[in-house]
Protein: Cyclin-Q
Amino acid sequence: MEPGPSSRSSAARDLVPAAGRSSGPAREADISRDMKTHFRVCRFIMEAGVKLGMRSVPVATACVLYHNFFKRVSLSVYEPYLVAMSCLYLAGKVEEQHIRTRDIINVSHRYFNSGSPPLECDKEFWDLRDSVVQCELLILRQLNFQVSFEHPHKYLLHYVMSVKSLVNRHAWSRCPVAETSWALLRDCYHGSMCIRHMPQHIAIATLYLALNSYGVELPVGEKRWWQVLCEGVTKVDIDAVISDLLQLYDMEAKCI
Structure:
């Protein structure tokens, strides 16, 4: 039987904040609240991933696992931060950067209890560890064990190197296009847009936005540079990614 609200361990409830829901708000309010929760939880995944020394792709995989899981289940049923911890654990396995459950639990504990010492290896710790492992199995079942994903990172790396060769090296050195596009790419994982758009489109759109932000112009030929690099992508595709990304930044302002 899959765990419901009553099956959450007391250790998990003590470690992470509950995702409470009011009794009958408008659907729009529900969606907005859920989006804010997912934004905050993915920010936790990213910050915890940094503290755990995880590479960019395993952290991205953890975010995709999280979004795909809650695409299938209700946020009112499962503790999102516990799911996030399990996603970090599972992503480490998928991307061959194994992370110990003890390290994930301690980093998470410090995240919510700043300045506190690590948890003792008592019943509370072992209950929480069991919750993380059981939740990992639940995620695997919900996703039908489809846990390998294609990320935009490799495409963005290729696109950045290709564009760099077309720009005056002095102009390129003055504008942190590469750094900005990578930061924009990372931000895409705060929301479900990372699973709603093709990885190539996300990569092209983040680079397009970075170039426009610094006013970097590329040579114009029969095709635009983004059509040359990513066959089949349209301006509509790029605009759709950028629109979703800007909505995420608006969400960030509301979450502060």
